[in-house]
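can u do me a favor
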């Protein structure tokens, strides 16, 4: 719980705590453990504490477009945890690794990281082999030999398309996300809402 929430009424703190717990359905094992890319577990950031509506809007935004989901740290963490339940998290982990890779500016680091990413995700029988065609695999193999920031672009694009057309719709239809989105919508519709979730009455 972020420090800014300590000034909120007790009921608001309870709502925030329950909302975070519900995301735990997705996020209890959401940390990525690869050397080439990582994402932290759900972050209850200070901006969400200051403005309870922000997080509800974030959750609802995940269903508007795949881009919005990928641009949200909490959305990526939730999606990753969902993919782990389907044993297909390697596509997202590869996509994230590529995003981090493109931020590198050192040629030496680019070359070293490129080979690590290739060995982890691209080569045949890699520990986290992604589902790409042979032509893309060989193209990427060639690109890695003279690594640049764009050497994984084709493979990354294909895994992104696969996630958007296949895994993303199933994520949106999952009971856990639908329940979370319904509560977020209800919270935004309530003028007296101070947090994204109503207290549980069980």
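np, heres the sequence
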């Amino acid at each position: 719980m972020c420090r800014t929430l300590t000034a909120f009424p007790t009921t608001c703190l309870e709502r925030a705590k329950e909302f975070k717990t519900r995301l735990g359905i997705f996020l209890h094992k959401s940390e990525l453990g690869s050397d080439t890319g990582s994402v932290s577990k759900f972050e209850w950031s200070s901006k969400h504490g200051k403005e309870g509506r922000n997080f509800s809007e974030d959750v609802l935004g995940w269903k508007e477009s795949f881009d919005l989901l990928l641009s949200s740290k909490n959305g990526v963490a939730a999606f990753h945890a969902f993919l782990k339940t389907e044993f297909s998290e390697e596509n997202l982990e590869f996509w994230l690794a590529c995003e981090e890779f493109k931020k590198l500016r050192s040629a030496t680091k680019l070359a070293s990281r490129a080979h690590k990413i290739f060995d982890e995700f691209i080569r045949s029988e890699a520990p986290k082999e992604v589902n790409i065609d042979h032509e893309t695999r060989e193209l990427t193999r060639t690109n890695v030999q003279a690594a640049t920031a764009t050497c994984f672009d084709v493979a990354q694009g294909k895994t992104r398309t696969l996630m958007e057309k296949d895994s993303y719709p199933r994520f949106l239809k999952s009971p856990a996300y639908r329940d979370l989105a319904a509560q977020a919508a209800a919270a935004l519709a309530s003028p007296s809402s101070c947090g994204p979730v109503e207290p549980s009455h069980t």
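Residues 153-173 form the longest helix (21 residues). hope that helps!!
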